[in-house]
Amino acid sequence: MKKRYKIIIAIVALLVIVRVALPFIVEKYLNNLLENLEGYTGHVEDVDLALYRGAYRIDSLAIYSTTQDLGGRPFFATNAIDLSISWRDIFKGAIVGEVILERPELNFVAAKSETDSMETGETVDWTKQIKALLPISINLFQIKNGQINYIDDFSQPKVDVYLRSMNFRLENMRNTDDDSDPLPSPYSLTAISLGEGNMSATGKANLLREIPNFDLDFKFEKANLTAFNDLFKAYAWFDFERGDFNLYSEMALVDSNLTGYFKPLLNDVKVLDWKNEDEGFLNKVYQGLVGGATELLENQREDQTATRVEISGTISNNSINVFPAIIELLKNAFIKPLQKDLEGRIVVRGKKIVVDDGGSKKAPKKKKKKDKD
To answer: Domain range spanning residue 141?
Structure first.
């Protein structure tokens, strides 16, 4: 056999060996990375490579806290993570990646005592860990059918609140170093809460900064309050007989400056049913006071209790304006009901946050040039 053919066969054999061994090498690298997270440990079950599309797929990743007992639950888990090179961007001269998480789940579990802190993941720079998983720029980050849980096994009754069917998409992440645009990355989020509430959020962001910039339009609508009764019984000592909850918010954070509002609305609310309540007399009195206050501040025509809470300042020094919130509560009850929708008041123009009382997020019209004489 000629030497040339031997070399070709050797190269092919080497490529086959590398192809077979590479998934195990990547899997070992990832498990070593996850085992050395500060305050956490993790594991992946399997890694599959798809060289023809420049991708690898991580199956069954789970991360556990080593500092707090989460009742055997992982802090984070996902069925799969698909990491790939974007061929569309390669043809434009850029090597960037796409990350898709399939059925991820994030668990926030309340600590047993007040002296212990709840695990939130804030001790780890997760952006750095994602970059270690895919050491090229990420242009698209996507979540498919995710879930977030808040669990308190130590309250009475136990609390289990969740967001499910969560879908999130963040684009254009590779342009986050462009100082001319503080919000280069459009995003969208949808989810369904306990009580079948519909959540949606849209806006633009730069989430890879140490303190992210973002512009947020948020809606949370038609959540059945009775589904949250365990939460209210555990932390507020009353529950709902009926009612829907809605929340609307616009928020903007640019260069640590924060401006926005929250607008919670309760519809068709009833707190106390004397005949069907099992609690003691004093608790019934307390619930009666809560229900009476809600009824007093309700707009009878719209069957709606609502207010608007303004927030402004910086990340380190922000303020919530309580007195205007009380005024809005009274105006909703006795003068004019608050609008059950976003108001279009918070606008980001360049690097400035503008409160547009006209309620329009459209860009300002350009001034017409004066005709030269």
So the answer is: 1-154
Using a 10 angstrom Cβ sphere, with 0-12 exposed, 13-18 middle and 19 or more buried, the burial of residue 323 is exposed
Would you say 209 and 254 are in contact if contact means Cβ atoms under 8 Å apart? no
Last residue of a domain, one of 123, 154, 185: 154
SS3 293: helix
Which residue in 102, 109, 98, 46 sits closest to 77, CA to CA? 102
State how far the Cα of 42 lies from the Cα of 32, in Å rounded to an integer: 9
148 and 256 together in one domain:
no
Instruction: Note whether 110 and 208 are same-domain residues.
Output: no
Same-domain check for residues 205 and 149: no
Cis bond leading into 135, ω under 30°? no
**Based on the structure, what is the number of domains in the chain?**
2
pLDDT class of 16 with cuts at 50, 70, 90: low
Indicate if 74 and 217 belong to the same structural domain.
Answer: no
Flag whether the pTM goes above 0.70.
yes
DSSP state of 93: T
What angle is formed at CA 39 by the lines to CA 38 and CA 44, rounded to 5 degrees?
80
Burial 33-42 (b: 16+ CB within 10 A, else e): ebeebeebeb
pLDDT tens digits, 153-188? 989 999 999 999 999 999 887 655 556 677 888 999
pLDDT of residue 255: 86
* Cα–Cα distance for residue pair 360/23, rounded to 1 Å: 52
CA distance linking residue 112 with residue 110, whole number of Å:
7
Q: Look at residue 371 and tell me whether its pLDDT is greater than 50.
A: no
Q: How far apart are CA 237 and CA 287, in angstroms?
A: 8
The DSSP 8-state label assigned to residue 25 in this structure reads: H
Between helix 3-35 and helix 126-133 the angle, nearest 10°, is: 160
DSSP at 100:
E
Residue 161 lies in a domain: no
223 shares a domain with 117? no
DSSP state of 166: E
Predicted confidence (pLDDT) at residue 323 exceeds the cutoff of 70: no
